């Protein structure tokens, strides 16, 4: 099995290159992998169980706000995720923490701070900038409800949020239409939603903060 790896998920090649440079300098014992979208992130994690930490930009193609973070945390609960974002608003930092991130690094942070943060998380700790935002009970409840979904149900939920019909979801995810119907029923029950529209609004709240 290959040696331990770190995965950088960001759709900006120049920023990815800058992060990889920091990782090679500070953590040469790790191999590095890259992903530029939510889909390639998921595929890379399935293909590389040796990944020990994910550095995640929230605004990649295929991600809705915090959806990629929630998806990784749901599918790989033992894998720490450090969010890297250009939006370091205290509420965004607090939400990332409540949705399961082990750390948050503003993109404006110097390379030294980035290296320190990653090292601390790899040791089992966490790293967040000082925050003024209060903990949100609504976000805590939302995270708890979404945590009940299986990874496949989470994928179906994101398709629901895009307004896709069961038939379209089945085609997109390679499932039988009846299987999608069963998933939708389970999703609505777990999220305590009475309609597909209400479930879609719930997903929309994951991207309520602009500039992620």
TrEMBL record:
GO molecular function: DNA binding
Keyword DNA-binding appears in the UniProt entry: yes
InterPro entries in the record: CheY-like_superfamily, EvgA-like, NreC/VraR/RcsB-like_REC, Sig_transdc_resp-reg_C-effctor, Sig_transdc_resp-reg_receiver, Tscrpt_reg_LuxR_C
Alphabetically ordered keywords of this record: DNA-binding, Phosphoprotein
Species the sequence originates in: Alicycliphilus denitrificans (strain DSM 14773 / CIP 107495 / K601)
Record domain HTH luxR-type: where: 142-207
4-aspartylphosphate PTM sites in chain numbering: 57
Domain Response regulatory: 5-122
Gene3D superfamilies noted in UniProt: 3.40.50.2300
SUPFAM superfamilies: C-terminal effector domain of the bipartite response regulators, CheY-like
SMART domains given in the database record: HTH_LUXR, REC
Record's protein name: Two component transcriptional regulator, LuxR family
A single BP term in Gene Ontology: phosphorelay signal transduction system
Signal peptide, first to last residue: none
């Amino acid at each position: 099995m290959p040696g331990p790896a770190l995965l950088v998920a960001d759709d900006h090649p120049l920023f990815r290159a800058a992060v990889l440079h920091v990782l090679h300098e500070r953590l040469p014992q790790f191999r590095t992998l890259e992903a530029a979208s939510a889909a390639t992130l998921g595929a890379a994690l399935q293909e590389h169980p040796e990944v020990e930490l994910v550095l995640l930009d929230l605004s990649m193609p295929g991600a809705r706000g915090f959806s990629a973070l929630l998806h990784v945390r749901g599918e790989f609960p033992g894998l720490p995720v450090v969010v890297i974002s250009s939006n370091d608003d205290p509420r965004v930092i607090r939400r990332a923490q409540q949705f399961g991130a082990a750390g948050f690094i503003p993109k404006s942070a110097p390379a030294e701070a980035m290296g320190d943060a990653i090292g601390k998380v790899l040791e089992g700790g966490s790293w967040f900038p000082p925050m003024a935002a209060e903990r949100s009970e609504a976000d805590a409840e939302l995270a708890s409800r979404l945590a009940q979904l299986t990874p496949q149900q989470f994928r179906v939920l994101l398709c629901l949020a895009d307004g896709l019909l069961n038939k379209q979801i089945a085609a997109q995810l390679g499932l039988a239409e009846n299987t999608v119907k069963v998933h939708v029923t389970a999703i609505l029950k777990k999220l305590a939603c009475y309609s597909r529209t209400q479930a879609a609004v719930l997903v929309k709240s994951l991207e309520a903060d602009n500039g992620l």
